[in-house]
Amino acid sequence: MSPTSIGILAIGMSVDALIASLGRGAKERHGLMAALGTGAVFGIIEAITPLIGWTLGLLASSYVQAVDHWIAFGLLGAIGIKMMLEAFKPREESGGGRSFGAIVATAVGTSIDAMAVGVSLAFLEVNILMVATAIGIATTIMATVGMLAGRFIGARIGRTAEFLGGIALVGLGFSILIDHLFLA
User: Fold this and answer.
1) Do residues 149 and 18 lie in contact, with contact meaning Cβ atoms separated by under 8 Å?
2) Residue 64: predicted pLDDT
3) Which residue in 83, 130, 154, 170 has its CB near the most CB atoms, within 10 A?
4) Domains in the chain: boundaries
5) How many CA atoms, within 13 angstroms, populate the side-chain half-sphere of residue 165?
């Protein structure tokens, strides 16, 4: 996987955390330390979930090696399409909550997609630690910025970012499929 592809994947996987932190920041004022703490929680969880998915994918890889590129394409495409559709759904107002448990629950909820991406990465020749680290760093930065910018930006920009992140994931899945079918 090229550094550009890793960067696109990391940003695409971070968009859900950005959306959640924009919403959180729009509801409450947060200082830099609170935003950094929230960003770190999101980043750590987002870095761990692709590792879990990758491990699960490795366990199944010997059974699906002939169609691994189709699996990667399908998972990334489905996640990307889901993100694009989510961008148009009405947002539910929630109490949010500032507790550590609420932050962790939100971070886990936004990182489930990264676990599915981790499964697809098990079928490709990637340095999973590099990819997971890139995802974690991008998520930490985006969630921190989202917390700080949320009160100024609000949900409108978040929807656009979510849609663009979905397009990036579909494009990455398509790129993997094309590379495997025509360049392998």
Assistant:
1) no
2) 67
3) 83
4) 3-89+98-183
5) 28
